[in-house]
Amino acid sequence: MSASLLEVFLDHAHRAPERPLLTFEQERFTYGQLATHVTAFARGLKQRGLQAGERVALFLENSARFAIAYLGVQAAGGVVVLVNTAYRQVELAHILSDAEVCGCVTGAAGVAELAPLRAQLPSLQWLVTVERPAPAPPESLTEVPFDTLLAEGTLATAPLATPRPEDLAVLGYTSGTTGRSKGAMLLHRNLLANVRAVSEAWRWTEEDRLLLTLPLFHTHGLMVGLHGTLFTGASVDLRRRFNAAEVLAALRDDASLTMFFGVPTLYSRLLEEARASRVKPRALRLWVSGSAPLSPQLFADVEAELGARILERYGMTETVMNTTNPYEGERRPGTVGFPYPGQEARVVDVRTRQPLPRGETGEIEMRGPHVFAGYWRRQDATAESFDADGWFRTGDLGEVDADGYLRITGRARELIISGGFNVYPREVEEVLALHPGVAEVAVLGLPDADLGEQVVAVVVPHPGAPPPASQALVDWCKDRLASFKKPRQVVFTEALPRNALGKVQKHLLRAALVTPGTHTAR
User: Fold this and answer.
1) 323-351: per-residue pLDDT in tens?
2) Smaller CB count within 10 Å for the chain: N or C?
């Protein structure tokens, strides 16, 4: 039995090298061609000195080169560190230093973001650039063009060892409620077990072709979309990013497509485009939604107007995919279904940690071979997240209905999910607190029809001074953080509600903001 997804992919390439695998813009790759590039990339890294277990960041937008680098780092024995392309210096400095990456694969925009951080990243020694950087990398960094590394690797003969099941494959940084984001350690066996379960549940086969517009730095795009394709021997039409008109046209014109994966925001925009253009997609075998709650109304509208009965599922960085609505049978709106084959889910009382009966709300816990090994160099956080029997505390609140469908009702932690992306309130608060016009600030998520949740900042200006302009605070965040983390709304107030211990009571702020006329904000 294979020990890693990489081994499964290489076996497909050996058995059927001419089978189509990936298209991206004008590029076409068969399994054999991509495997040749992956091997060359891995040997190029080894020749440049990459050691087993060293971390390499991928700060890169969607492309065939992302897939080559992702598999190539693992084939060389390295560990991939996934980095959101929207991240800027605050996030980059933390993640790359915490993971102690030795190298980074990136583009010209990435080089520009990394250049000012050189002094903060002593472990970073080299960059693999997919396009000529401008400005050039700092002099202390070695810059290797992607194609040069491939050429070097093609001539190299360094042996490549197949990863073992217990080897670390990926560090996925995820937001929590205390401290900065933590690196979730996903082993090769975790990734393989989960993609096997997902493929079984969704009847994924080598005959499938996926239209993939989700970012590959994200769990949904990479560890579901690309992993599932590689595991089953299927093919994928990879796009640089989502464009509603282009996606709808492809779904109408390309009869080879059988699957589309999206977040609720993408389905909302597809629906708007279809209404405006009167373009309708062909029937697909499978439409999947995740990464944020799908409203029953959007579920119904998409089915009525696009003919797509969406399958909603539930996952997270630490566990990849947890539960799914059934492929065959009722796909119940507002729920995320049942555990995947070989995995377990339960709802427990948040205080006693005892399992609750159906219909009662508690914290969702997961157990199975898909659950990560713990947080990178954070034994304290790992210990807090697992019980003695191996159940992982997700931090999500939910309940199981009478028929066994899991429904997510909220989050025990204050994570905001906006447009399918995680936003950590404290990180935004820390940036806003640096603004000279801000005395205090609290950041929270409020319901949003398009994004699922929008980021809202409640600001206390300095006494005696006029409040800063709302747009000025939005721009302040946009210059320092990923754009999706900036507040969509800024509310000013004279004071933040606090409990006897001085902790801000965000539930009171949230209740006031969603109930017009009951808050003191102005």
Assistant:
1) 999 999 999 999 999 999 999 999 999 88
2) N
